[in-house]
Amino acid sequence: MADRTLLMVGTRKGLWIGTSDEARADWEFTGPHFDMEEVYSCLIDTRGDTPRLLVGSSSSWLGPQVWRSDDLGASWQETPNGAIRFPDDTGAKVERVWQLVAGSEDGVVYAGTEPGAVWRSTDRGETFTLERALWDHPHRQEWGAGFGGQAFHTVLPHPTDPRSVTAAISSGGVYQTNDGGESWEAHNHGVKAEFLPEGAQYPEFGQCVHKITRHPSRPERMFMQNHGGVYRSDDHGATWVSIADGLPADFGFPIVVHPHEPDTIYVFPLNGSGGRYPPDGEAGVWRSRNGGDTWERLAQGLPDTFYVAVMRDAMCADDHQRAGIYFGGRNGAVWGSADEGESWSQVVADLPDVMVVRAAAI
């Protein structure tokens, strides 16, 4: 049984690693790892006998790299010339690694990058191969760039079917392969692109999706936080319906599913215009326990005043039996709940701008 908790916090100026016991009341942190490098993605891969940590960092001098550690961050290894590099014939160059996620097969790891591309590794993140059919998709030339750039920030492998992967890009929308990457189809039916002219707001592609999640025990049900809207799909992304009723705002970045309850989800609503901070400047995580039919605000222990955004990968859950929920703000503070969001306490403060938070029981 796992008796420790590991928390990775990636920022605009390095990575911090926190450890605690199962109670998750007291934390010890090391860092910065990769000092002054941007860390937009990290993964705690608990498959196998030894957990592997993966970090997607970007140095202004040396460019992007996927680092790996098999001793919980005590030492790090890199792949010569970078783990992710575009083939010469593409004429493209990786700017950032926005996503690292474990696949459903042993050793498989997926990455999402800027510019918008998805990559697959079969050696636990040491080297990656471009998903070429998605890169060559005829829609790609018309994909836009969100405020943070054009990037695949969601890669969601099917938990039991290794040939099926769902990915999302800002601003291009949702794409899915069910044939092992041989072909990819847009899956945006019902998702509104509110920034387009009236009458053209439900296009085949071009939506600014912020994040997608699902529970492995119910893979056909998926949840999405869009640029404007929160959605659910009950048919593996073929169609989407709004579940935003009851929320104070339908804009936000992260959406997280409970590790043991497939219909329990968490979001962090923000004002969509006039300042990307919580409505009325009041911190609050919102939870639904019925797939988005109803929502409740969870704020016990959070600050009354909070004019801070929480980014798409800066919120997560661990996998303890009583799940912990975490979020990091752009003010450098990370908040955690050891009781599934019922109460909150500050885990660490005064870090740089938080981009990604990942946690696991080890």
From TrEMBL:
InterPro entries (UniProt xref): WD40/YVTN_repeat-like_dom_sf, Xyloglucanase_GH74
Stretches that traverse the bilayer: none
Gene3D superfamilies reported for this sequence: YVTN repeat-like/Quinoprotein amine dehydrogenase (2.130.10.10)
SUPFAM superfamilies given in the database record: Oligoxyloglucan reducing end-specific cellobiohydrolase
CDD domains: Sialidase_non-viral
PANTHER family recorded: EXO-ALPHA-SIALIDASE (PTHR43739:SF5), XYLOGLUCANASE (EUROFUNG) (PTHR43739)
Protein name: WD40/YVTN/BNR-like repeat-containing protein
Native source species: Nocardioides caricicola
